[in-house]
Design brief:
alpha+beta; Heat Shock Protein 90; Ribosomal Protein S5, domain 2; Ribosomal Protein S8, Chain: A, domain 1; 8-stranded mixed sheet; binds adenosine-5'-diphosphate; binds magnesium ion
Length: 616
């Protein structure tokens, strides 16, 4: 009568369910496989992927390998060589310990494993499909392990649907591998995608050297080494000087006991250490390594092991904050010595532009509290001067890039719907001066006006660019000597896919090697010299999906970003002449009351309002 309804699921189905937690996308499967290689003592790890990793993920290592029985067991759930009992959970020194990664991956793919211990005569080959072992046989292979995962999620269509484009998945996989490579500099890493090499880094002596291998000398040369140890642990790593800042937190990399993690305590400590040193909304580049006694960190709080729990979170915060803050407070001397090398290496305008800002601090000696952000002052001034003088017109090439964007858009843009009486001609007002290095104070007919210099310049630049775009294409100014720009090879597919948009924005760029662009021209409105920096900012501010939507609306979004990065920032002192020129430009510009993001360009305090405040 009473039917039994509860039953234990077959192991294969249980694995598929668990797979949902452990492997969410190709990048997470890759991370698990590479962590296994590291746990196996590999000195060299090679990764190949196809189709963003969904079609193929292959990891080869020269680690300890496995015998036949171990290989067969390794793809079973809860099969691990790394812990024996629960007490081991309190002192984990390996990446893996849950014994479920291989089982999960094998249950949602066609997996072939070839593995051999050095002492064995030959290796063993194991093929598994959807979790079911198909065959095991002897094979010839060098000592180590090679695991090939094909058609990830072939039997879990719901999971497959959630994958993004191949370029995006490839980027995520490459970034996951870069994080592991950074944490393990003594191991060589190589990665290829669809037959193209993304990076190939030999064994390195230090994290700094690895940073240089992975992200290029330009960034590595601007990084400061920091270290602080106390009774609770040690925090060390590399932190970019506060002259560098980035549009996304992508280069904030945090590790606990060499495990890449994303942790709120650490991120907050980093953000606070950089507080007031970076412009609002910008992020530093930091590689932070925190080393704690294994019993002081719980790594078993997340199936993907990307989160941890600290036994004494407050102490960890304090340690990281102090380590970074002390180093950042005293960065002048270090950077100054790094500069000649950078200059000799043919560094572009970015590094030369920071010289004056740093030279100002250099003599100060001990722990100077750096003042408000002074970003590349001469650089910005040049931009503004060039802009207001409209100098490039003379030698600018008229290059209609015409992707067809806006070709037939409304060129006869009617006057903006402004209540003419309410918007003054700024140039007619008396300039009182600049305040807080960010606002221009003007005396109006019947009130006091404050103009936000960045918003104003941003609108001027944006409208110029938009006008050019509509009348055939953004004007490109050729650079006297083409410059090269490196980008993170992990994002190669996205960057290359975005070249048409970048060209439409006025950057004359050609791919050159796997992670380098040759820049031959830049939007004339900014002058060519700042082009490389601007291009870097544009690439950096690209979302995970690149410039995903095509069409004019998307391109205008890009124009906003471009105008923003290219415009004079708050925090810069303007000369009287620059102020009058900016105001005149602004008066010639449509939509001059707001910046392209919609923030007001000016606010007004009416005379009556002021008088009332003084109880007159
Ligand atoms: P865990 O890493 O948590 O132990 P996995 O499912 O990731 O669980 O791996 C199961 C076991 O398979 C590991 O404990 C290890 O003994 C073995 N193994 C996996 N990958 C490799 C490899 N590349 N080289 C040697 N042994 C491996
Ligand atoms: Mg593992």
């Amino acid at each position: 009568m009473i039917e039994r309804v509860v039953h234990i699921l077959p192991e294969q189905i249980a694995s598929q369910i668990a797979a949902g937690e452990v492997v969410e996308r190709p990048a997470s499967a890759l991370k698990e496989m590479v962590e296994n290689s590291l746990d196996a003592g590999a000195r060299s790890i090679s990764v190949e992927i196809e189709g963003g990793g969904a079609r193929l993920l292959q990891v080869s290592d020269d680690g300890c390998g496995m015998g036949r029985e171990d290989a067969v067991l390794s793809i079973r759930r809860h099969a691990t060589s790394k812990i024996r009992d629960a007490s081991d959970l309190f002192a984990i020194r390996t990446f893996g310990f849950r014994g479920e990664a291989l089982a999960s991956i094998a249950s949602v793919s066609h997996t072939t494993m070839r593995t051999r211990r050095a002492a064995d005569e030959h290796g063993v080959e194991l093929t598994v499909s959807g979790g079911a072992v198909e065959h095991t046989r002897a094979c010839a292979i060098a000592p180590g392990t090679r695991i090939e995962v094909r058609d990830l999620f072939f039997n879990t269509p719901a999971r497959l649907k959630f994958l993004k484009t191949a370029a995006t998945e490839q980027g995520a996989a490459a970034e996951a591998l870069q994080r592991l490579a950074l944490a393990n500099p003594k191991v060589a890493f190589r990665m290829a995608a669809d037959g193209r090499l993304l990076f190939d880094v030999p064994r390195a002596a230090s994290a700094l050297e690895r940073m240089r291998q992975l992200f290029g000398a330009r960034l590595a040369d601007k990084m400061l080494e920091f270290e602080l140890a106390d009774a609770g642990g040690r925090a060390w790593g590399l932190a970019a000087t506060s002259q560098e800042s980035f549009a996304t937190p992508r280069l904030v990399l945090t590790f606990v006991n060499h495990r890449p993690v994303r942790d709120r305590v650490l991120l907050r400590a980093i953000a606070q250490a950089y507080q007031t040193l970076l412009p609002r909304g910008r992020h530093p580049a930091v590689a932070l390594f925190v080393e704690l006694r294994p019993e002081d960190v719980d790594v078993n709080v997340h199936p993907m092991k990307t989160e941890v729990r600290f036994r004494r979170a407050g102490a960890v915060f304090e340690l990281v904050y102090r380590a970074l803050r002390t180093r950042l407070a005293d960065q002048a001397s270090e950077v100054a010595t790094a500069l000649p090398a950078a200059a000799a290496a043919g560094a572009d305008d970015v590094s030369t532009a920071v010289v004056p800002a740093i030279a100002g601090n250099a003599g100060a000696g001990t722990a100077v509290q750096p003042a408000a952000p002074t970003r590349s002052i001469s650089d910005q001034r040049d931009h503004l001067l060039r802009l207001v003088a409209d100098a490039p017109a003379a030698h600018a090439m008229q290059t209609p890039l015409g992707l067809g964007y806006g070709r037939d858009a409304v060129t006869a843009q009617t006057s903006p719907p402004l209540a003419a009486s309410r918007v003054p001609r700024y140039a007619d007002l008396r300039v009182i001066g600049q305040i807080f290095a960010g606002f221009i104070a003007l005396e109006g007919e019947d009130g006091l006006l404050l103009i936000d210099q960045h918003a104003a310049h941003e609108r001027v630049t944006f409208e110029k660019l938009r006008g050019e775009l509509r009348s055939g294409g953004i004007r490109v100014q050729a650079m006297l000597t083409p410059a090269t720009m490196e980008f993170n090879p992990a994002r190669a597919a996205q960057v290359l896919a975005s070249l048409p948009e970048l060209r439409a924005l006025g950057f004359e760029v050609e791919p050159f090697g796997p992670a380098t662009l040759v820049v031959k021209g830049a939007p004339a409105v900014f002058g060519a010299e700042g082009g490389v920096r601007l291009l870097g900012e544009m690439i950096e501010s690209m979302g995970e999906d690149g410039f995903r939507n095509h069409g004019e609306a998307a391109l205008e979004d890009c124009l906003k970003t471009l105008a923003c990065h290219g415009s004079v920032r708050a925090g810069r002192t303007l000369e009287q002449r620059e102020i009058t020129e900016l105001l005149a430009e602004l008066d010639r510009t449509e939509f001059k009351t707001n910046c392209p993001h919609g923030r007001p360009v000016h606010i007004e305090f009416r005379r009556g309002q002021i008088e009332r405040m003084f109880r007159r």
